[in-house]
Amino acid sequence: METKEFFYKLKKYDVAEVIKVGCSACLFVLLVILSVQGGKRWYLSLSFSIVLFAVFEINSFFIKKLVIKAVFYSVEYVILLVYSLLFSMPFLSTLYSLILVDFYMNNSLKANCVFGGFSFLAYAVSISVRDYVLNREEFVLSAAFAAVINEFIVFSLVFTIANMLCVILKKNKEVVKNLQEVAEREKKLQEANENLKEMAKLEERNRIAKQIHDTTGHSITTIIMQTEAAKLKFDTDPVEAKNKIISANMQAVTALEELRKSVRVLSGEYVPFNLISSLDKAIAETMEGTDIVIRAKYPEEADVDEEIGFFIYASLKEGLNNGIRHGRATAFFFELKIVDGEVKFILSDNGTGAENFKEGYGLSTMRATAEKFGGEASFYTEKDEGMEISLTLPAHLKKGEKHD
């Protein structure tokens, strides 16, 4: 975290600009010294210094195109060559080096080596020619060569420092860019996480609604039928009416148990589920105390995953509930087969059917859930032809697969 904060603070300042300002300050000081040492021709030295400083400032801070920069570099070199030929002054090699710093900061190491080499060669030739012209009688080749070597050390030192700074700046820019990308990715991840939380909440609400609709809804429908039948029998057959009220009471107890079970499941508690016993109970409760007849055919044991099993149980209750409430069905046929790892589910009734059939919440959810499991659902109905629900499902989910 401290490293990240450091680079973010460093980003506020353009390090390259800071280096340019430092080079400008050094150049200014050197040019003042050279102007003072110009002797009788100080005015000439001062004029060249002012021009050189102005060209350097313009080239460093205002010129961006490399072609135009090259022109300004040439002007700087001409001024320095004149300096070298007219004045025998120290620090000239330092001046040559300073005007190259801006170039070093904006180009590759290979280009810097080539340009720096040519620059030093031009400087070495200029001071050698100057020494030969001004002091021909005292000119010694070995001494001139030694002077060139000494100046080369200054050039090399400035070249090394400048290129090290260049590498540091590039790495700093990369670090800042990477930190920005990381920050953007973190922001996107946070947004995605918030979206996932909202989706999870929505899925949880849908799951609660579906679970209550599939399990408790059927029991309440049966209770309504039994109490309606009891009302009709109350005067003519009190005993039968009493039996139906008892059955309705038992259904109410069952509905309450299912609600409690749903709450326990939603709270994260594991509640074992047995498909066959649940099918037996759903069919028995539907037939008990009503005139509804259900013919059922399914195995005594079913090797299916719990999620698949609960979906089959909920689909049966949904189909019975729809047939009774909407189709006024009095007879059902239910068949469940498990063949070659697939579950075949069929539920048909003798209800009124529908001429213009539209899937409601329960059936559309049934289809979506079947497809989520990797299966399919189909519904067939015609007016006065009842309703048939057909499901094809995998008996087992793939390893590691889970559906809510």
Main attributes of the structure:
2 domains, 69% helix, 11 helices, 404 residues, alpha+beta, five-stranded mixed beta sheet, Heat Shock Protein 90
Please tell me what the overall shape is.
Answer: rod-shaped
The strand count comes to 5
The helix fraction, in percent, is 55-70%
Give the neighbour order of strands across the main sheet. Answer: 1-2-3-5-4
Order of helices and strands: HHHHHHHHHEHEEHEE
- Mean residue pLDDT: 78
Largest beta-sheet characterization: 5 strands, mixed
Counting helices, strands and paired strands, the structural category is alpha+beta
**In angstroms, what separates the terminal alpha carbons?**
38 Å
Spans of 5+ residues with little confidence (pLDDT < 50)? Answer: none
The total of helices stands at 11
Strand percentage: 5-15%
Number of domains in the coordinates?
2
Mind telling me the C-alpha Rg? 46 Å
